[in-house]
Amino acid sequence: MKVLIINHFPLVGSGSGTYTRNIAVHLMKKGHEVSIVFPENTTNFSDISGAALYPVYFTYEEDIEGALPFNFPCFTTHPRSVMTFFDLDGDQLEMYLNAFRDIIKRAVAEFRPDVIHGQHIWLLSWLAIETGLPYILTAHGTDLMGYQKSDRFKEQAEDVAAGAKRMITISNDNDKLVREIFPNAIEKTVFMRNGYDPECFFPEKLTRKEVLAAYGLAPLKYFVLFAGKLAHFKGIDVLLEAAGIYEETHKGEILTLIAGEGELMAPLKERAEKLRLENLHFLGFVNVPQLRALYSTADVSVVPSRREPFGLVAIEALACGAPVVATNQGGLPDIIDDKVGALVDVEDAAGLAKAIIAEMLRPDRPQRGEYAARYAYETYAQDSLMDQLIGILSN
Q1: Of 161, 192, 223, which residue constitutes the final position of a domain?
Q2: The domain containing residue 20 runs over which residues?
Q3: H-helix or E-strand containing 181?
Q4: pLDDT of residue 77
Q5: How far apart are CA 258 and CA 51, in angstroms?
Q6: What are the backbone angles phi and psi of residue 18, rounded to the nearest 5°?
């Protein structure tokens, strides 16, 4: 089978980008051929061996010949773009659609796919209708957040949903929202969990001292980690408030690291200074090996999102043996229970601090980490989910 995957985001820096990369690699392992259409604002992006890549270039920090004269749009933000779809004026939208229309036509002519797998029920999936090829959609959740923000692209979305063979939903909350927003396509929805790549995320036998030394930091008694883009819906500001509480009750004992980039870096740093957080540090972008090492040595990973459509970062943390304290919204309750972490209310800094402290102080912390890694592998390893995806794409 030849699968053309279309994504609205680069293959690094977003959940759907990671999903696209994961399924592309594992489809090829199963003997299928893959091509990918996606936006980029740098020529220095990592390749996917064996996949035919069709980037559409946008302008960011480097001059790229033929690039569109603006950055790629997002639903909320991306570590490398704060332009949203709703910021596009009429001319920019026309340029965006025409550029992707041309690259999709080229990919179809050169690659000759059997099926298109569109990421998000959104504009690029709408362009896929023009190919006349069968297409499957995955609703990643940020697209649904887009419809809750504005009806500007709802007409195109209705067309996309009407023409799709199947619409994959990735969490119970995500499934409920898809059914509410697209009631005429309910019979097309099929539930399938996202997976993670166990070749990238697994427990590493490292000392905390050697991992933290790479950032010029010395270990304290406990280590709390957040990883993700610095966007409002991720709730990092609530974690800062929680850190203010546990730094006061456990003076000099808890190190908190924020790994990731995004539009809120400056205001979050300013907030941390106002809270006088002495042991909280922003690391900026970290690559997969660095993130794996951080997860493997953290006492707890925190996902304080106001809304998390799925929660891949929680699974990746668990896969490395880090229990997770997360909010009880979106897809996170599907993943986290009291065997691998704890759930707290959104916006509840005191409750978050209490749950983080309780997790760190558990006497069975080592055994809990071992169970978390085993649970993640047995439930969410990408290779174990591929037969279901291949069945959806081929029928």
Answers
A1: 192
A2: 2-192
A3: helix 172-181
A4: 81
A5: 33
A6: -65, -45
